[in-house]
Design goal:
CATH topology: Amino acid/polyamine transporter I
Subcellular location: Membrane
Shape: globular
GO molecular function, one term: L-amino acid transmembrane transporter activity
Distance between the termini: 13 Å
CATH architecture: Up-down Bundle
Radius of gyration: 21 Å
InterPro entries: AA/rel_permease1 (IPR002293), AminoAcid_Transporter (IPR050598)
CATH class: Mainly Alpha
Largest sheet: none
Number of domains: 1
CATH superfamily: Amino acid/polyamine transporter I
Structural class: mainly alpha
GO cellular component, one term: membrane
Order of helices and strands: HHHHHHHHHHHHHHHHHHH
Membrane topology: Multi-pass membrane protein
Length: about 450
Amino acid sequence: MGNNEQKLNRGFGLTASLALVVGTIIGSGIFFKQGSVLESAGSTNAAMLAWIAGGLLTLASGISVAEIGSQMDKTGGIYIYIEKIYGKIWGFLAGWMQVIFYGPAMMGSIAAYFGILFVDLFGLSKSLEIPSAILALSFVGIINSIPNRFSAGFQIITTTVKMLPIVALIIFGIFFGQHNALGQTVAHISQSGQGGFGVAVLATLFAYDGWVTLANISGEIKNPQKVLPRAIIFGILIVIVAYVGVSFGVYQSLPANNIVKLGQNTTLYMATNAFGVIGGRLLSVAVLISLLGTLNGKIVSFPRVLFAMANDGLFPFAKQFSKINMRSRTPNKSIWFMILLGILMIVFTNPDRLSDIAIFTTFLFYILVFVGVFKLRRRDPLGEQRNFSMPLYPWLPILAILGSVYVEISEIMHDLSGVLISIAIVALGYPVYLVLSRRINNK
C-alpha cells in the first residue's frame, strides 16, 4: 500500500509551507489572550517576558522536530517519527490520538468559534452558530478536496490577510500609544487570574501551538528535507515577532488595568479606538479570515496522518482511507472522514473542551519526539542521514523537553480528570492496533 505515497502532489513550496506554519499557529489567540496573560503575569514586563519565553520554548521544540523531519520525508509527522524511533505500537498510538481525538476536536473548536464570531458580527440568530460552523468546516474541506495548490494558495492569502491587522496594531501602538508599555503593574488581580508567571507562560504556549502540523504533510512538500526545517524555524520566528509586537502595541495603547478589565475585547477596543468603528469591524472580519486559515492548516495536516496510517494498513477500512483522488491527488476520503468527526463533535460535544483534554497526550508524544533527537544522534553520530543539524545541541531539545514537562505537570495539577480521559482514549487504540496488526501478519 506504500505506493500511494508517491501519488501525492508536492504542491507546497517554501512560501506555502511558511504560510502553513504561521497561519496554523496564529488563530485567534493573539487577538484575545492579551488580558488573561497580563492578568496572570501581574505586570506588563512579566507578560512580555511570558510571550518571549513561550516563543523560545516553541522555537526549541520546532528546531528539534526540524532536525528529525530533515531525516524523514514521508507523510505522517510524529506518527512516522515515533514509529521509526520507538516502534509501530507507539507510532500507532500517536497517530490514533491525532486522528480520533485531537485533530477533529481542533477542527471542531476552531469552526465552532468561527460560528460564534460570525453570528455575532452580522447580528444573526444564535441558532445559526452551529450551521455557520459546519458550513465553514465544509467550505475549507472543499478547498482541500481539489489540487493542493489551491489549499496552499488559500493558506498564503489567509495568512497575508491575518498579518495586516497585526502589523497595524503594532505600528499604532509603537507610534501613537499614550502609555509606557513596560513598567505597568496590574492593581487588582482577580481569583481567576492568580497563578503568576508560570501560568502566563502556559497560556502563551497554547497560543503558540500548531507549528508541528507542517511535519504531517512531508510527502506534499517540495524538497522537504530542506524546506521543512526552514519553514518551521522562520515561521515560528515570525510568530514570536508578531505576538511580542502586538503585546507591546496593546500595552503601549491602553493602561494595564483596562486591558485586564476588557479581557477578550482588548484588541477590538484598541482597533476601534485607533481606526474607528470601521476599523473594529475590519479587525473582526480579519479574525474570521484568520480562523479560516487556521482551519485550513488543520484540514491540510491531520487527514494526512490518517492517510499515512491507512497506507501502512494500520487503520480500520485502510483500503478506503489510503486512496487518493486521481484528479486532485489528495486523500479526500481521509479528509472528509475527519471533517465528519469534527462536525459530530460540534453538534454533540464541546470540541473546545475536548481539544483542551487532548493537550496532555499531545505534549506527551512531543516529549517522545524530543527525546528521539538524542536516540537518532546516537544511531547516526556522523550525521550522514541529517540534512539539517540544529545549533546549540543538546540544549535546545533539553529546553523543549523541560517546557513540555512543565505543560504536563500543569495539566495534571489543574485538570486531572481531563488527563485521565485523554489517557483512556489513547489506550483504547491499543486493542485496535492488536486487531489490525494481526490482520496484516495473517496476509
